[in-house]
């Protein structure tokens, strides 16, 4: 009966919160039934009750991000977490589900390990998710769920939306002097940046039509500079997909985006000139020292823009960027790829949020203390 509850509860949440292409990993003697139950196009991996560490398995053969991890007959849940230390530290497991019996009397230790990595814990109670700040001691058993912080707003249908920098920046020691925003659209983040204390904003927008609106909006704003440029990893020419919702327009061809948002289509494809960010600043006589925060909202081009920054990244205290957890545009880097670039340049990822859809969100990276 407990196994049936675990299966039904998990499937209900998966249906509500995971896209069809999500990656499900089940560990333990009961793992096989999840492959059958989770059919619907999801990629399902089953591992034995005593697998090699999940960190080691993900490196050569497994996914770098696990959407849903299920412990079902694994024998020693704490040992599984020991082998997934990096995945948990980087919050690359979105949902982790286990039956209380899997804890083997170590439920408190399981809770402590997960909470130390930023996860919130819940128990299924009367067909609802019951938040648990501490492990229950009522002897009722049941199914437990750990949820990565990027999903909290969506899980509880909060209306907070994306990051509010006034609260987020001070919490992580970031004092914005100037902000470069690549992929500005019509400058919707301006009030958010000013509220956070930024004295200067550089908006860069690739689409000439959208740029015209952006430029008109901020005419006369002495604290704002607007540039029409397509920022990438090299200078050249590129095709630009202008979408019916201009905020989805991209240097990359939409793929998964068309499935996630079928009402947003390609209106036309134009050709644009691409520049690296350092070259763009230099050609307009803008001193990099005037900006200590980089923001990117470029619909899949994040890795290319960051790669093109090169040594310029050393001058930023923080980078806030859109990240993807599934391919939405052809050839786009995923969140783990953004991690690789920014970790190598001395940043740590300190916050993530995905309030609208599982496949994408924003992440904040802050420079490690020198």
UniProtKB/TrEMBL annotation:
The keyword Transmembrane is annotated on this UniProt entry:
no
Q: What is this protein called?
A: Methyltransferase FkbM domain-containing protein
Q: Does the keyword Endoplasmic reticulum apply?
A: no
SUPFAM superfamilies from the entry?
Answer: S-adenosyl-L-methionine-dependent methyltransferases (SSF53335)
Q: Which GO terms describe its molecular function?
A: O-methyltransferase activity
| PANTHER family noted in UniProt | NODULATION PROTEIN, SLL1456 PROTEIN-RELATED
Q: Name any one Pfam family assigned in the record.
A: Methyltransf_21
Q: Spell out the NCBIfam families in the cross-references.
A: fkbM_fam (TIGR01444)
Ranges for domain Methyltransferase FkbM come to: 181-347
Organism, as annotated? Azospirillum baldaniorum
Keywords annotated in UniProt: Plasmid
On the tree of life, the source organism's domain of life is Bacteria
């Amino acid at each position: 009966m407990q196994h049936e509850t675990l299966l039904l509860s998990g499937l209900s949440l998966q249906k509500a919160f995971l896209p069809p292409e999500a990656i499900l990993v089940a560990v333990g003697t009961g793992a096989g039934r999840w492959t059958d139950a989770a059919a619907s196009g999801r990629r399902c991996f089953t591992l034995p009750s005593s697998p090699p560490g999940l960190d080691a398995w993900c490196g050569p053969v497994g996914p770098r991000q696990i959407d849903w991890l299920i412990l079902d007959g694994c024998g020693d849940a704490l040992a599984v977490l020991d082998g997934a230390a990096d995945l948990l530290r980087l919050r690359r497991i979105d949902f982790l589900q286990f039956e209380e019996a899997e804890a083997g009397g170590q439920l408190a230790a399981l809770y402590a390990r997960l909470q130390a990595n930023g996860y919130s814990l819940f128990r299924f109670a009367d067909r609802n998710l019951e938040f648990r700040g501490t492990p229950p001691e009522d002897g009722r058993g049941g199914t437990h769920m750990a949820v990565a912080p990027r999903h909290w707003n969506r899980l509880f249908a909060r209306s907070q939306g994306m990051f509010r920098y006034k609260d987020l920046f001070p919490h992580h020691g970031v004092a914005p002097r100037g902000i470069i925003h690549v992929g500005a659209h019509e400058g919707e983040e301006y009030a958010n940046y000013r509220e956070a204390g930024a004295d200067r904003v550089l908006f860069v927008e690739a689409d000439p039509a959208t740029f015209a609106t952006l430029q008109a909006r901020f005419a006369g704003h002495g604290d704002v500079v607007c540039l029409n440029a397509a920022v990438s990893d090299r200078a050249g020419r590129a095709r630009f997909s202008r979408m019916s919702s201009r905020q989805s327009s991209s240097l990359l061809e939409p793929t998964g985006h068309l499935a996630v948002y079928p009402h947003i289509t390609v209106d036309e494809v134009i050709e644009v000139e691409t520049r690296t960010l350092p070259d763009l600043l230099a050609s307009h006589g803008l001193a990099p020292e005037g900006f200590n925060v980089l923001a990117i909202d470029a619909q899949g081009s994040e890795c290319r823009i960051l790669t093109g920054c090169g040594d310029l990244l050393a001058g930023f205290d923080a980078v806030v960027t859109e990240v993807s957890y599934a391919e939405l545009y052809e050839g786009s880097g995923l969140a783990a790829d953004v991690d690789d670039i920014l970790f190598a340049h001395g940043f740590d990822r300190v916050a993530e949020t995905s309030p609208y859809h599982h496949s994408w969100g924003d992440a904040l990276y802050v420079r490690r203390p020198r």
